[in-house]
Amino acid sequence: MARKPFIAGNWKMNMTAASGEKLIKELAPLVADANCDVALCVPAILIPAMTQAAKGTNIAIGAENVHWAEKGAYTGEISCEQLKEYGVKYAIIGHSERRQCFGETDESVNKRALAALANCITPIVCVGETLEERESGITEKVLDRQLTDGLKDIEDVTKIVIAYEPVWAIGTGKTATDGQAQETIAYIRKKIGQLFCPGCAEKVIIQYGGSMNAANCKGLMAQPDIDGGLIGGASLKLDFATIVNFDK
Ligand code: PEP
To answer: What's the pLDDT at 224?
Structure first.
């Protein structure tokens, strides 16, 4: 069965309830006939208002993180139960900004992913190498570690989404070439096949993320292993609709 493309936005620490609502209202008619799944992952504080704004549209609302514990003394974190109360369907996990600025590790990524799965929230697990790692020729080694440790004990890998986000391409305006993104994502798929089973790997949605925009989305999405995009900057404007409609 063909994999259904999935375009998700990552608002990061941007937007307010007012500006977010305005954008969703403007985007909704533009993406209504999309042939792909569409989501916007928004700051936790905006989840109630954005869920309301997206009601009746084909835009799902996601979170930018989720904690593994049911509840308790984890100041600043958010639980699956809290997300589920608003019908949140997706949670980004292990974004490179969380890894670099907030000490996220493969182990914590794994705990968050397992908790999300146990609560029917689809984890969008981010992996990717830094520029230094790419230039030292260890991209595959880094991805092996992130996938082996980050996806440990996952029973059904087809229930997760992977976002391959080369760190050097995030927010820099420097996109991986179509060929670079395809080659690395094909490698990720092969590795998932080894860790789980080849048939499962063929079903896993793998997005590309890193300065994907209205101008470069068609070329990236034309690659056989690229099933979608995780979009930062361009998800804050109507360009997001152009990306969602990449096939039109
Ligand atoms: C991201 O934050 O996941 C991302 C890909 O950002 P940008 O599109 O701005 O590079």
So the answer is: 97
The secondary structure of residue 45, as a DSSP letter, is G
Give the phi and the psi of residue 207 in degrees, each rounded to 5: -95, 160
Q: How far is ligand 1, taken at its centre, from the CA of residue 72, in Å?
A: 31
Query: What residue ranges do the domains of the chain occupy?
Result: 6-65+76-240
Could you say which residues of the chain have pLDDT below 50?
Answer: none
The pLDDT assigned to 39 comes to 98
Report whether residue 233 contacts ligand 1, using a CB cutoff of 6 Å: yes
Examine the residue annotation and report whether 95 is marked as an active-site residue of this protein. Answer: yes
CA atoms of 231 and 219, how far apart (whole Å): 15
Question: Is 212's C-beta closer than 6 angstroms to any atom of ligand 1?
Answer: yes
Report which of 134, 227, 247 is spatially closest to residue 185, judged by C-alpha positions: 227
Q: Whose CA is nearest to atom 4 of ligand 1?
A: 232
Is 97 in the active site? no
CATH superfamily of 6-65+76-240: Aldolase class I (3.20.20.70)
Task: Find the catalytic residue in 64, 67, 95, 97.
Answer: 95
Nearest to 69 by CA among 123, 118, 106, 125: 118
